[in-house]
Design a protein that fits this description.
The complex is a heterodimer of chains A (246) and B (240). Chain A has 246 residues and is an alpha+beta fold. In chain B, the strands form two sheets. Chain B has a five-stranded antiparallel β-sheet with strand order 3-2-7-1-8, covered by helices on one side. Chain B is 49% helix and 20% strand. The radius of gyration of chain B is 31 Å and the shape is flat. Chain B has five helices and nine strands. The interface between A and B is large, with 98 and 94 residues.
Chain lengths: 246, 240
């Protein structure tokens, strides 16, 4: 009886295993057939990802080369003008470049960090808990109104051709996609700049515990605003401008 | 004894096969996470980087050429000065230091006699004109630069340190691409409707008119303008 029972148990186990085996094999075959296009999709995705990584590496290397060439150009011009005694022209050129935002500048100022509410929940939280392009523009406007002499957003220098606009979840500035946190730097009187941000009613409301947007202001003795990255490519921003002949 | 051994081997084999199948199944489920929208997004990024790289390649080639031209001209004589002066002029135009003219759009904004024009309305049009690719913008003939403020006080709107009466008409001028005329005008129409339908502005009875102008003149901003505040800036050491 005991022997029969053991054999019965073995057969039962074998039956269960084989049954499971059959179910999984059938399911697997069905799924493999269904996933054929999806597998292709994932292979294409993987390939594109590799291509993107290569493209980003190339972009970094080309950007570094561009920076090096710009410095080389400046050095050549400076040396030539100094050697030939055109120091006035060199001074004028440097001043115009500074006014245009084409030079790296420093001075006292502030840094403003705008960030989405931590652990933002799309179902529970208000859209006001996210940083929008209009918020970045609003902060820039407040800083301009308080005497900012130079501005940058995530290391993108704000110049005459700059605009801040949203593209999906990212913000476009100087043709670069930026993602939060947005670090806005301004050179100017630190107390006046900081006060403009801290006393702004809209930003105060958005920082309330009900909304939770992050706004951090730091007064700094030294803020560095980078040079406009497209200093060698101004033509596309001035090609419609005709200077009247006097 | 022999039967038992066979049974054990069969069960072991089945268990191994089951394990393999389950892991394959899990792998399939993971691969299934790639959607067409993920793929589309990565393709957009790829195209974006490909365009940027092509543009940077061209810019770098031009820079090499310009540097070598400068060095050759310097070796040969004075011609290099002309190219440096031309470069300085291009930068001055970009900086807003030169009066400029061309095709563009003019926008007139006024409101009822009992109301005051709001700085936010002016800023809305200016921001959107920038996004539309305007190469030069002025408000009441004040050339706007990157640090120009448009700020309201009780009776005036301050632009580049100069005040303009909030009860007067404000005129925004912008030099834009004539090829984009239809798009720019339709965009401005939408923007106008959006401003006029804003509940907070309804009582002010805004009157907003705009038109394309074949040739409009936008004045220069003086180097001494309050908008520049160059005295607050010093050259920063280059990154290394």
């Amino acid at each position: 009886m005991a022997k029969l029972s053991l054999r019965f148990r073995q057969n039962l186990l074998l039956f269960v295993l084989l049954f499971l085996f059959g179910v999984i094999v059938t399911n697997h075959i069905t799924q493999v057939n269904q996933l054929q296009p999806s597998n292709n999709l994932s292979k294409i995705y993987q390939k594109r990802q590799e291509e993107l990584e290569q493209a980003i590496l190339q972009y970094d290397s080309l950007t570094a080369e561009n920076k090096r060439l710009l410095i080389e150009k400046e050095t050549v011009i400076e040396n030539q003008l100094n050697q030939k005694g055109y120091s006035n022209l060199l001074d004028e050129l440097n001043k115009v470049k500074t006014l245009a935002g084409l030079t790296r500048v420093q001075g006292p100022g502030i840094s403003v960090i705008l960030n989405d509410k931590p652990s933002f929940d799309v179902l529970r939280d208000s859209a006001d808990a996210l940083v929008h392009d209009s918020d970045v523009r609003h902060v820039l406007d407040l800083l301009r109104a308080s005497g900012a002499a130079a501005l940058s957003v995530n290391d993108q220098r704000i110049v005459n051709a700059s605009y801040v606009f949203c593209i999906g979840p990212t913000i476009l500035c100087n043709m670069q996609r930026l993602t939060p946190p947005y670090i806005i730097q301004a050179i100017g009187q630190p107390t006046a700049l900081a006060s403009a941000i801290e006393r702004d009613p809209m930003l105060s409301l958005r920082q309330s515990s009900e909304i939770g947007l992050i706004v951090q202001v730091k007064q700094l003795e030294l803020v560095i605003c980078p040079a406009y990255a497209e200093a060698d490519d101004l033509n596309k921003y001035i090609d419609k401008l005709v200077v009247p002949v006097t | 004894m022999k039967n038992k051994l066979i049974q054990t081997i069969v069960i072991t084999l089945i268990c191994i096969l089951l394990g393999i199948l389950i892991s394959l199944q899990l792998k399939n489920v993971n691969e299934d996470n790639v959607t067409e929208s993920n793929l589309e997004e990565i393709q957009y990024k790829l195209i974006d980087y490909a365009n940027k790289n092509a543009e940077l390649n061209t810019r770098n080639a031009e820079l090499y050429q310009y540097i070598s031209q400068l060095e050759n001209n310097f070796a040969e004589g004075n011609a290099y000065i002309d190219s440096i002066i031309k470069e300085k002029e291009r930068i001055a135009i970009f900086a807003g230091l030169r009066e400029v003219k061309n095709y563009g759009v003019a926008i007139e904004i006024s409101c009822s006699a009992e109301s005051l024009i709001r700085d936010s309305v002016i800023r809305t049009f200016v921001n959107d004109l920038r996004a539309l690719g305007a190469q030069a913008i002025s408000v009441n003939d004040e050339r706007l630069v990157a640090t120009s403020e448009i700020r309201a006080t009780s009776s005036s709107i301050i632009i580049n340190g100069n005040g303009y009466n909030r009860q007067d008409k404000f005129i925004i001028k912008a030099i834009t691409d004539p090829i984009k005329e239809a798009y720019v005008l339709s965009y401005l129409e939408t923007l106008k409707k959006s401003v006029l339908s804003d509940a907070t502005l309804r009582n002010d009875q805004y009157d907003i008119r705009f038109q394309a102008v074949q040739e409009l003149i936008i004045p220069a901003l003086s180097e001494d303008s309050l908008a520049f505040k160059i005295d607050l800036l010093t050259a920063a050491p280059s990154e290394s």
